[in-house]
Amino acid sequence: MKKVCVIFGGMSSEHDVSCVSGATVADSLKKDRYEVILVGITKDGHWLKVDSVDSIRDGSWRKSSVSAVISPDTKGEIIIDSDGNVTREKIDVVVPVLHGLFGEDGTIQGLLTMSGIPYTGCGHLSSAITMDKFFTKVIADSINVTQAAYVPVRDYELSDMDSVVARVEAEREYPVFIKPSNAGSSMGVSKARNREELIAGLKEAAKHDSKILVEEAINGREVECAVFGTTREPKAYGVGEIVAAAEFYDFDAKYNNAESKTIIEPELPAGKREEIMDIAVAIYRACDCYGFARVDFFLERETDRVVFNEINTIPGHTAISMFPMIMGAAGKPLSDYLDELIDMAESR
Hints:
Distance between the termini: 20 Å
């Protein structure tokens, strides 16, 4: 029986969502195939051995006094310390279920690569690239993918706010969206309809990252595509649509507003489903993705133009998450595609 370590939590603003995803994934691993070891990372960055999925759901795992860390040594071990009693345990595969910074950005993938432990999902380079919206845009431009026009801003430039505002207003018309380059679940994202809102949005985005994007506002339907497989042979499994309860699909609309809805295989104009899936696969390959990813788009209302938004290399696995819904509708339930992800991890 393979020893599979599920790592969840983390130091990002998506810590709580990662805990929900981690519990879902751990519960879905087939008990007759895997011995599951749970490791939670607190918001402060402490690694803890977790006894049960129930303790993830009720939050009591954070009270654990047993530490459990991945050794960078190529023995492929996890080091467990219980009140000074140190043991080592060989791990066959790690399943990182960490959203956002310090989990989806290549950091833990680099550690696991050093350790020699196979892990599911994208490698350290593709994780880092896709986590950074600015560099993802550079790659999308290189393969001529249509995306929202943007103005890049660095946080240190905000010391001369008048100059930044003048540059943005010279290149873009209101409304615009302001996004931290490295943040997930729409944390720090805002919409600006005027100069005052632009300034407030830039200050808020700077709390989350040093690089900021000011993008044109696309009046479009929000659609997402699930891509699964190796870099060489990826496959798009379907398209879903987000109907946000709020003006845009921010963190609160995603996780706290029951009126936000997800629609699997929505009605789309002729040929647009196939176009979205083709572009999603092209971006997946261009970013050197591996395992799985969710690729997000806008379908512009006035023109039916497909506009690339972003890519997520560790998609959410909460009750409202699109990726597992699309995969399930395509005949691949979570427990089955976890098997495939683990097989791909071992063959990489």
